[in-house]
Amino acid sequence: MRIYALYLTSVSCGFCMMSLEILGPRYLSPRFGSSVDVWAAIISVFILSLSIGYWLGGRIADKARTNNPLGWIILAASAFFLLLPAYTHGLVEGLGKDVHTARWGSLLAGALLFLPPSLLLGCVSPMLVKLVFIGADQVGRTTGTLYAISAFGNVVGILATDYILLEAFHLNTSTIAMGVVLAITGVLHILITLQADRNGTTTLPAVANENGGETAAEAS
Amino acid sequence: MQRPLAIAIAVVLIILGITLQADPYRIRDPGFPADQQVLDFRDSTYTHISWVTSEASNYAQLRFYDRVEGGVCLRPQWSDLTTPHLKMPADYQIETVAPAPTWPAGMEVPNPGTLSNTKYICMYPLSVLLNQRLMAEAKGDAAKAAPNILIVGLGSGVGVGMFAHHFPEASITVVDIDQKVIDMVRDHYPMLRWLEQDAPPTADGRKRLRLIAADARQAVIYPELHGSERPFDVVVLDAYTSGSTIPPHLMTREFFQEVKGAMSEDGIMLSNIIGSYRGDKRLLLGGAIRTMHAAGLTEVHNFPIYYFNNGETKPEFGPDQEKEVRNNVVLASKMPLDPRGNRDGWKAIHDFIKSGAPYADLPTKRYRSVLATLVFDDTASMSTSLITQDGNAIDGAVYQAISKAYGNQPHDYRRYFRINERGLIGKTVAAVREHAAATDSEVPQGWTRDDAVALSVIFIDWVHHARSTFRASVSIAEVPATPTRFAHSGRHLVGPSEEERAEMAEPDWVILDAPLFTDGTPNADIFNN
Question: What is the ipTM score, two decimals?
Answer without folding.
Answer: 0.79
